[in-house]
């Protein structure tokens, strides 16, 4: 997995991202990539959708949101969605994607990255805790709000 990189969505990567399959039971915790693409189209100034590519194969998808003006602190710098292909999970792709999103947040002057997820046996909680997120709250729907502290970039304006 030394060839990992993020790419902006393109005609060919959108199709591959939409075809990512999850492990059984994970579907209930994340919306389909097609929903994220639609949201990115509706919110082009704040949404940051990217595919994770290993060599030339799309192996994951992550979408962040950057909105310093949001009234909701949780949505200022956050992960909206993340999917990693079922047969590629456990190989560092998710960690790479989150760190790349955190790097983008840092470049934009943010010092925290948040994520909202539903707790559950097949859910993403263990993954997020493992890479440093800490639960900082709960939504009215029982979802966890977790945050990762990131050092600000010395080059942020």
End-to-end distance, in Å? 33 Å
Oligomer: single chain
User: Roughly what fraction of the amino acids lie in strands?
Assistant: 25-35%
CATH architecture tag:
3-Layer(aba) Sandwich
**Secondary-structure class:** alpha+beta
How do the helices and strands line up, and which of them pair or pack?
Blueprint: E1 4-8, H1 11-18, H2 33-42, E2 47-54, E3 57-66, E4 77-84, H3 93-107, E5 112-117, H4 125-130, E6 134-138, E7 144-149
Parallel strand pairs: 4-5
Antiparallel strand pairs: 1-2, 2-3, 3-4, 5-7, 6-7
Question: Can you give me a brief rundown of this structure?
Answer:
The chain is an alpha+beta fold and 157 residues long. It is built from 4 helices and 7 strands; from the N terminus they run βααβββαβαββ.
Structure, explained:
This protein is an alpha+beta fold and 157 residues long. The chain has one domain: Gcn5-related N-acetyltransferase (GNAT) (Aminopeptidase), CATH 3.40.630. The chain has 4 helices and 7 strands, in the order βααβββαβαββ. It has helices at 11-18, 33-42, 93-107, 125-130, and strands at residues 4-8, 47-54, 57-66, 77-84, 112-117, 134-138, 144-149. A 7-stranded mixed beta sheet has the order 1-2-3-4-5-7-6, sandwiched between helices. A hairpin with a 5-residue loop joins β6 and β7 (144-149). It is globular and about 35 Å long. The relative contact order is 0.16.
